[in-house]
Specification:
about 450 residues; FAD/NAD(P)-binding domain; seven-stranded mixed β-sheet; five-stranded parallel β-sheet
């Protein structure tokens, strides 16, 4: 199929992905009158809640802070809705705001590249090309599996937590879960119920928190206060409700609370105390049907579940479009490309909050950024760079700080076209947009730092 002419640029945006981020962006675009097409590689909407979450999963962030404020979850939902309830809610959200009919399902994009004049070329798996005014990437960050590497050979089965779907995979087996995050806690707790043995290997100490305290979800115990005060409150709660981690056989955390994501699991702590979960340090090597740990102890295992997280990656973006350092995407306000007009990467961060409360202000800031960019000659990110706006250094974020940041951004946006007139010149502009014609993917993969 031949490429369309430059005149065939569609005067609208392409939204890639129909998970929570993509749906919220679409809803906000409808409210602001921003035309768009939405594409989803899967057969249904929901993102990780459709293709990734295991059947027994429940959210850890609570219904109150995970729902979209504009469209609350049903009053009959529990504090911690299940995977199916969250998926039902996202489907109801799409139906309520008439978003579903504007999503093209089973439509995988294999290449996104910039074109002269600031438009964007999209290549689909089918071989079709389309050109759009702009692109909003909402492809999620729970799909590109990160695997650990150990010496030796394991004779049993090794899967990633992404491939775990139900307790039947664990039943009657000797199970070792590697990792200390929320998925690791969920899966090893399932193993404690149905497996022959349940073992947990931790590379370092984690902050383990109960799901509830004082009858409330623990994430709701504190409001928009400084991080140091949040730490004090949660340390007091942990001292009362959990105590010394060494009494559970766990190592002490090697970092301050909230410097990394805490693991929120009442069940894991419960089964550790009941001897149903056996904690271990990091794996040293595999040895046939056994695993040896760095302290010299060994256990036999039939199944290893690597709950070791995910890479943040954009395999369909042409090389150089996104600078990714570890889990951090280097863009302004968590979404705006530093170099290109109308390229936005949304939903890669991991705030200590549910998706709804933060996606709405993010999407509102995005919509206003698009309208501001349309009034400017140079890329919005280039102007923000000249204003010395900071780029993110971590994928973790305090939700209250994020909300304040979005409010400040929306106050700044109306001023940027005037600032541009005296701040930017031709020499200050970003590098010229590359002309990639015909659009063939480079053999060089996108660099992930």
């Amino acid at each position: 199929m031949s490429m369309p002419d430059l005149e065939d640029v569609l005067p609208r945006f392409a939204i890639i992905g129909a998970g929570p981020s993509g749906l919220c962006v679409a809803r906000t675009f409808v409210r602001h009158g921003i035309p768009y097409d939405q594409f989803e590689a899967d057969a249904a909407l929901g993102g990780i809640w459709y293709h990734g979450a295991y059947a027994t999963a429940h959210i850890i962030s609570s219904r109150k802070i995970s729902q979209f404020p504009e469209y609350p979850m049903p009053a009959g939902y529990p504090d911690f809705p299940s995977q199916q309830q969250v998926l039902d809610y996202l489907n109801a959200y799409a139906e309520h705001f008439a978003l579903r009919d504007r999503i093209t399902f089973n439509k995988k994009i294999t290449l996104v590249q910039p074109l002269p004049g600031g438009s964007w070329n999209l290549l689909f798996e089918s071989g079709e090309y389309r050109r759009y005014k702009g692109v909003v990437v909402c492809n999620g960050h729970h799909w590109d599996r990160r695997w650990p590497s150990y010496s030796g050979q394991f004779n049993g089965e090794i899967i990633h937590s992404k491939d775990y779907k139900s307790p039947e995979q664990l039943r009657g087996r000797r199970v070792l879960v590697i990792g200390g995050g929320n998925s690791a806690c969920d899966i090893v707790s399932e193993a404690a119920r149905v497996a022959a043995d349940a073992h947990l290997s931790l590379r370092h100490g984690y902050w383990f928190m109960p799901k509830t305290a004082l009858g409330k979800p623990i994430v709701e115990l504190i409001g928009p206060y400084p991080l140091w005060l949040q730490r004090i409150v949660h340390r007091v709660v942990l001292a009362i409700c959990v105590g010394d981690y060494r009494r559970y056989g766990l190592p002490l955390p090697n970092h301050r609370l909230f410097d990394r994501h805490p693991s929120v699991s009442t069940e894991a702590l419960h089964y550790l105390k009941h001897g149903r979960i056996h904690p271990h340090p990091d794996v040293a090597r595999y040895d046939g049907a056994e695993v040896e740990f760095v302290d010299g102890t060994r256990v036999g295992a039939d199944l290893i579940v690597c709950a070791t997280g995910y890479h943040v990656s954009y395999p369909f973006l042409a090389p150089g479009l996104a600078e990714v350092r570890g889990s951090v995407v280097r863009n302004y306000w968590g979404m705006i490309s530093p170099q290109y007009r109308h390229l936005y990467l949304v939903g890669w961060g991991q705030p200590r909050s549910g998706f709804g409360n933060l996606l709405e202000p993010l999407a509102e800031t995005l919509a206003q950024s698009i309208k501001t960019q349309d009034r400017m000659q140079f890329p919005l990110g280039a102007v923000l760079r000249r204003l010395r706006m900071p780029l993110p250094e971590s994928h973790l974020a305090d939700p209250f700080q994020l909300e304040r940041g979005y409010r400040k951004a929306r106050r700044l946006l109306p001023l940027l076209p005037r600032i541009e007139r005296w701040l930017c010149s031709e020499s200050d502009n970003a590098a010229p947009l590359p002309v990639l014609s015909p659009p063939v993917r480079s053999a060089e993969p996108m660099r992930v730092y």
